[in-house]
Amino acid sequence: MHTPLCRHATGEPTELAAQAVRVGLKEIGFSEHNPMPRDDWDDWHMLQADLDTYVEKVQQARRDHPQLIIKLAMEVDFIPGQEAWIKHLAARYPWDYLIGAVHYVSDSWDLDNPKKLSEWKHRDAFEVWTAYFERLTLAAESGLFEIIAHADLCKKFCFYPKQDCTPLFTKFLEAARRHDVAMELNTAGLRKDCKEIYPSPTIVRLAGQLGVPITFASDAHAPTEVGMNFAEAVALAKSAGYTHSCRFTGRRREAVKLF
Protein backbone atom coordinates (compact mmCIF):
# COMPACT_ATOMS: atom_id res chain seq x y z
CA MET A 1 0.00 0.00 0.00
CA HIS A 2 1.18 3.48 -0.89
CA THR A 3 0.94 7.00 0.46
CA PRO A 4 1.11 10.55 -0.95
CA LEU A 5 4.88 10.46 -0.43
CA CYS A 6 5.22 8.56 -3.73
CA ARG A 7 3.57 11.54 -5.44
CA HIS A 8 0.92 9.44 -7.21
CA ALA A 9 -1.28 8.20 -4.36
CA THR A 10 -3.90 9.68 -2.07
CA GLY A 11 -4.77 8.99 1.56
CA GLU A 12 -2.54 9.14 4.61
CA PRO A 13 -1.55 5.84 6.26
CA THR A 14 -4.05 6.39 9.06
CA GLU A 15 -6.82 6.80 6.45
CA LEU A 16 -5.85 3.60 4.68
CA ALA A 17 -5.70 1.83 8.04
CA ALA A 18 -9.20 3.09 8.87
CA GLN A 19 -10.44 1.61 5.60
CA ALA A 20 -8.74 -1.69 6.42
CA VAL A 21 -10.67 -1.81 9.69
CA ARG A 22 -13.91 -1.03 7.83
CA VAL A 23 -13.44 -3.90 5.36
CA GLY A 24 -12.56 -6.34 8.14
CA LEU A 25 -8.83 -6.79 7.70
CA LYS A 26 -6.86 -7.76 10.82
CA GLU A 27 -3.39 -7.04 9.47
CA ILE A 28 -1.98 -4.74 6.79
CA GLY A 29 1.41 -3.53 5.63
CA PHE A 30 2.59 -0.28 4.12
CA SER A 31 5.18 -0.63 1.37
CA GLU A 32 5.93 2.77 -0.12
CA HIS A 33 8.20 3.10 -3.17
CA ASN A 34 11.76 3.37 -1.94
CA PRO A 35 13.87 6.50 -2.29
CA MET A 36 16.20 6.18 -5.27
CA PRO A 37 19.95 6.94 -5.25
CA ARG A 38 19.10 10.29 -6.84
CA ASP A 39 15.91 12.26 -6.21
CA ASP A 40 15.78 13.25 -9.89
CA TRP A 41 15.68 9.59 -10.99
CA ASP A 42 11.94 9.90 -11.71
CA ASP A 43 8.79 11.51 -10.33
CA TRP A 44 7.13 8.58 -8.59
CA HIS A 45 9.53 7.38 -5.90
CA MET A 46 9.67 8.70 -2.37
CA LEU A 47 12.26 11.45 -1.91
CA GLN A 48 15.25 10.63 0.27
CA ALA A 49 14.32 13.31 2.81
CA ASP A 50 10.85 11.77 3.19
CA LEU A 51 11.92 8.36 4.46
CA ASP A 52 11.82 9.38 8.12
CA THR A 53 8.44 11.05 7.55
CA TYR A 54 7.09 7.85 5.99
CA VAL A 55 8.10 5.77 8.99
CA GLU A 56 6.57 8.28 11.40
CA LYS A 57 3.29 8.26 9.44
CA VAL A 58 3.10 4.48 9.67
CA GLN A 59 3.82 4.69 13.40
CA GLN A 60 1.02 7.26 13.71
CA ALA A 61 -1.36 4.87 11.96
CA ARG A 62 -0.39 2.23 14.52
CA ARG A 63 -1.19 4.61 17.36
CA ASP A 64 -4.51 5.59 15.76
CA HIS A 65 -5.61 1.98 15.13
CA PRO A 66 -4.28 -0.23 17.94
CA GLN A 67 -6.74 -3.00 17.02
CA LEU A 68 -4.98 -3.45 13.65
CA ILE A 69 -1.60 -5.10 13.07
CA ILE A 70 0.35 -2.73 10.81
CA LYS A 71 3.62 -3.81 9.24
CA LEU A 72 6.34 -1.43 8.09
CA ALA A 73 7.81 -2.23 4.69
CA MET A 74 8.99 -0.83 1.38
CA GLU A 75 8.57 -1.70 -2.27
CA VAL A 76 12.14 -1.49 -3.54
CA ASP A 77 13.15 -1.24 -7.18
CA PHE A 78 15.76 -3.78 -8.20
CA ILE A 79 18.19 -2.30 -10.71
CA PRO A 80 21.43 -4.18 -11.34
CA GLY A 81 24.33 -2.22 -9.91
CA GLN A 82 22.24 -0.59 -7.17
CA GLU A 83 22.44 -3.41 -4.64
CA ALA A 84 24.57 -1.38 -2.21
CA TRP A 85 21.89 1.32 -2.15
CA ILE A 86 19.23 -1.26 -1.32
CA LYS A 87 21.36 -2.64 1.51
CA HIS A 88 21.78 0.90 2.83
CA LEU A 89 18.01 1.41 2.86
CA ALA A 90 17.44 -2.00 4.44
CA ALA A 91 19.65 -1.01 7.36
CA ARG A 92 17.85 2.27 8.05
CA TYR A 93 14.82 0.88 9.91
CA PRO A 94 13.54 -2.43 11.34
CA TRP A 95 11.44 -3.34 8.29
CA ASP A 96 8.99 -6.22 8.49
CA TYR A 97 9.61 -7.07 4.84
CA LEU A 98 11.03 -5.66 1.63
CA ILE A 99 9.21 -6.24 -1.63
CA GLY A 100 11.48 -6.44 -4.65
CA ALA A 101 10.04 -4.87 -7.77
CA VAL A 102 11.12 -4.47 -11.37
CA HIS A 103 9.77 -1.43 -13.18
CA TYR A 104 12.88 -0.48 -15.12
CA VAL A 105 14.18 -2.66 -17.96
CA SER A 106 16.91 -0.08 -18.51
CA ASP A 107 18.13 2.83 -16.38
CA SER A 108 15.76 5.16 -18.22
CA TRP A 109 12.65 3.12 -19.12
CA ASP A 110 10.11 2.20 -16.48
CA LEU A 111 7.89 0.07 -18.67
CA ASP A 112 4.67 0.58 -16.69
CA ASN A 113 4.85 4.38 -16.80
CA PRO A 114 1.91 5.80 -18.81
CA LYS A 115 4.07 8.78 -19.74
CA LYS A 116 6.42 6.42 -21.58
CA LEU A 117 3.80 4.26 -23.26
CA SER A 118 5.13 5.23 -26.70
CA GLU A 119 8.34 3.30 -25.94
CA TRP A 120 6.41 0.07 -26.41
CA LYS A 121 5.42 1.04 -29.96
CA HIS A 122 8.92 0.60 -31.36
CA ARG A 123 10.12 -2.33 -29.27
CA ASP A 124 9.65 -6.05 -29.68
CA ALA A 125 7.35 -7.29 -26.91
CA PHE A 126 9.19 -10.57 -26.44
CA GLU A 127 12.52 -8.76 -26.04
CA VAL A 128 10.96 -6.48 -23.40
CA TRP A 129 9.37 -9.38 -21.53
CA THR A 130 12.68 -11.26 -21.67
CA ALA A 131 14.59 -8.29 -20.21
CA TYR A 132 11.91 -7.83 -17.57
CA PHE A 133 11.93 -11.46 -16.40
CA GLU A 134 15.72 -11.58 -16.47
CA ARG A 135 15.78 -8.71 -13.98
CA LEU A 136 12.99 -10.27 -11.94
CA THR A 137 15.02 -13.47 -11.71
CA LEU A 138 18.07 -11.49 -10.55
CA ALA A 139 15.90 -9.80 -7.92
CA ALA A 140 14.75 -13.18 -6.63
CA GLU A 141 18.35 -14.40 -6.52
CA SER A 142 19.70 -11.28 -4.82
CA GLY A 143 18.81 -12.20 -1.25
CA LEU A 144 17.61 -8.63 -0.71
CA PHE A 145 13.86 -9.24 -0.59
CA GLU A 146 11.21 -11.32 1.16
CA ILE A 147 8.61 -10.89 -1.60
CA ILE A 148 8.63 -10.22 -5.34
CA ALA A 149 6.06 -7.68 -6.57
CA HIS A 150 3.58 -7.94 -9.46
CA ALA A 151 5.51 -10.64 -11.27
CA ASP A 152 4.20 -9.94 -14.78
CA LEU A 153 3.90 -6.16 -14.63
CA CYS A 154 5.04 -6.14 -18.26
CA LYS A 155 1.47 -7.09 -19.31
CA LYS A 156 0.00 -3.87 -17.88
CA PHE A 157 -0.60 -2.17 -21.25
CA CYS A 158 -1.47 -5.44 -23.07
CA PHE A 159 1.65 -5.71 -25.21
CA TYR A 160 1.84 -9.49 -25.33
CA PRO A 161 4.55 -11.50 -27.12
CA LYS A 162 3.57 -14.06 -29.72
CA GLN A 163 6.26 -16.40 -28.38
CA ASP A 164 5.79 -18.82 -25.50
CA CYS A 165 7.04 -17.14 -22.32
CA THR A 166 6.78 -20.23 -20.12
CA PRO A 167 10.58 -20.67 -19.96
CA LEU A 168 10.91 -17.07 -18.70
CA PHE A 169 8.29 -17.67 -16.02
CA THR A 170 9.80 -21.00 -14.97
CA LYS A 171 13.33 -19.62 -14.64
CA PHE A 172 12.07 -16.82 -12.38
CA LEU A 173 9.92 -19.13 -10.24
CA GLU A 174 12.69 -21.68 -9.83
CA ALA A 175 14.96 -18.87 -8.62
CA ALA A 176 12.29 -17.70 -6.18
CA ARG A 177 11.85 -21.21 -4.81
CA ARG A 178 15.59 -21.81 -4.60
CA HIS A 179 16.14 -18.59 -2.67
CA ASP A 180 12.98 -18.97 -0.56
CA VAL A 181 11.35 -15.76 -1.81
CA ALA A 182 7.58 -15.28 -1.83
CA MET A 183 5.55 -13.97 -4.77
CA GLU A 184 2.60 -11.66 -4.31
CA LEU A 185 -0.82 -11.99 -5.93
CA ASN A 186 -1.47 -8.34 -6.67
CA THR A 187 -5.03 -7.28 -7.45
CA ALA A 188 -4.02 -3.89 -8.92
CA GLY A 189 -3.78 -5.58 -12.32
CA LEU A 190 -7.57 -5.83 -12.34
CA ARG A 191 -7.64 -2.01 -12.31
CA LYS A 192 -5.23 -1.67 -15.26
CA ASP A 193 -5.56 -2.20 -19.01
CA CYS A 194 -4.73 -5.91 -18.67
CA LYS A 195 -7.72 -6.47 -16.34
CA GLU A 196 -5.97 -9.41 -14.71
CA ILE A 197 -4.35 -10.07 -11.36
CA TYR A 198 -0.55 -9.90 -11.35
CA PRO A 199 0.67 -12.51 -12.09
CA SER A 200 -1.45 -14.48 -14.54
CA PRO A 201 -3.15 -17.78 -13.65
CA THR A 202 -0.49 -19.55 -15.72
CA ILE A 203 2.28 -18.18 -13.52
CA VAL A 204 0.34 -18.80 -10.30
CA ARG A 205 -0.25 -22.43 -11.31
CA LEU A 206 3.46 -22.90 -12.08
CA ALA A 207 4.33 -21.27 -8.75
CA GLY A 208 1.97 -23.66 -6.97
CA GLN A 209 3.57 -26.66 -8.65
CA LEU A 210 7.03 -25.46 -7.63
CA GLY A 211 6.01 -24.58 -4.07
CA VAL A 212 6.74 -20.85 -4.24
CA PRO A 213 5.19 -19.08 -1.20
CA ILE A 214 2.62 -16.35 -1.85
CA THR A 215 1.30 -13.18 -0.28
CA PHE A 216 -1.66 -10.97 -1.19
CA ALA A 217 -1.48 -7.30 -2.17
CA SER A 218 -4.04 -4.72 -3.17
CA ASP A 219 -1.24 -2.30 -4.12
CA ALA A 220 -3.60 0.39 -2.86
CA HIS A 221 -2.91 3.95 -3.98
CA ALA A 222 -6.10 5.27 -2.36
CA PRO A 223 -8.20 4.25 0.66
CA THR A 224 -10.96 2.78 -1.54
CA GLU A 225 -8.46 0.26 -2.96
CA VAL A 226 -7.46 -1.27 0.38
CA GLY A 227 -8.11 -5.01 0.22
CA MET A 228 -9.84 -4.63 -3.14
CA ASN A 229 -10.59 -7.91 -4.99
CA PHE A 230 -8.96 -10.10 -2.35
CA ALA A 231 -11.69 -12.72 -2.78
CA GLU A 232 -10.65 -13.15 -6.41
CA ALA A 233 -6.99 -13.40 -5.41
CA VAL A 234 -7.70 -16.06 -2.79
CA ALA A 235 -9.81 -18.00 -5.31
CA LEU A 236 -6.93 -17.86 -7.80
CA ALA A 237 -4.50 -19.14 -5.17
CA LYS A 238 -6.79 -22.01 -4.22
CA SER A 239 -7.31 -22.94 -7.87
CA ALA A 240 -3.52 -23.33 -8.13
CA GLY A 241 -3.47 -25.67 -5.13
CA TYR A 242 -2.43 -23.23 -2.42
CA THR A 243 -3.67 -23.88 1.11
CA HIS A 244 -1.53 -21.21 2.82
CA SER A 245 -0.21 -17.73 2.21
CA CYS A 246 2.45 -16.09 4.33
CA ARG A 247 3.12 -12.97 6.35
CA PHE A 248 6.27 -11.38 7.67
CA THR A 249 7.38 -9.85 10.95
CA GLY A 250 10.90 -8.52 11.32
CA ARG A 251 11.73 -10.10 7.95
CA ARG A 252 10.78 -13.57 9.18
CA ARG A 253 8.08 -15.57 7.42
CA GLU A 254 5.08 -17.30 8.94
CA ALA A 255 2.50 -19.45 7.13
CA VAL A 256 -1.17 -18.45 7.28
CA LYS A 257 -3.94 -20.87 6.38
CA LEU A 258 -6.31 -19.77 3.63
CA PHE A 259 -10.01 -19.75 4.49
- Give the overall pLDDT as a whole number: 98
Major sheet, described briefly? 6 strands, parallel
CATH topology name: TIM Barrel
The percentage helix is 25-40%
Overall number of structural domains: 1
CATH superfamily: Metal-dependent hydrolases
Broad shape: globular
The appropriate CATH architecture is Alpha-Beta Barrel
CATH classification, class level: Alpha Beta
Order of helices and strands: HEHEHEHEHEHEHEE
Look at the helices and sheets and give the structural class.
alpha/beta
Written description of the protein model:
The two termini are 23 Å apart. This protein has a single domain (4-257), classed as Alpha-Beta Barrel (TIM Barrel), CATH 3.20.20.140. The mean pLDDT is 98. Helix 4 packs parallel to helix 5 (166-178). By secondary structure, it is an alpha/beta fold. The strands form two sheets. The chain has a six-stranded parallel beta sheet. The protein is built from seven helices and eight strands, in the order αβαβαβαβαβαβαββ.
Summarize the structure.
With 259 residues, this protein is of the alpha/beta class.
Layout of SSEs?
Layout: H1 13-22, E1 27-33, H2 51-64, E2 69-77, H3 83-90, E3 97-101, H4 125-141, E4 147-148, H5 166-178, E5 182-186, H6 201-210, E6 214-217, H7 230-239, E7 244-249, E8 252-257
Parallel strand pairs: 1-2, 2-3, 3-4, 4-5, 5-6
Antiparallel strand pairs: 7-8
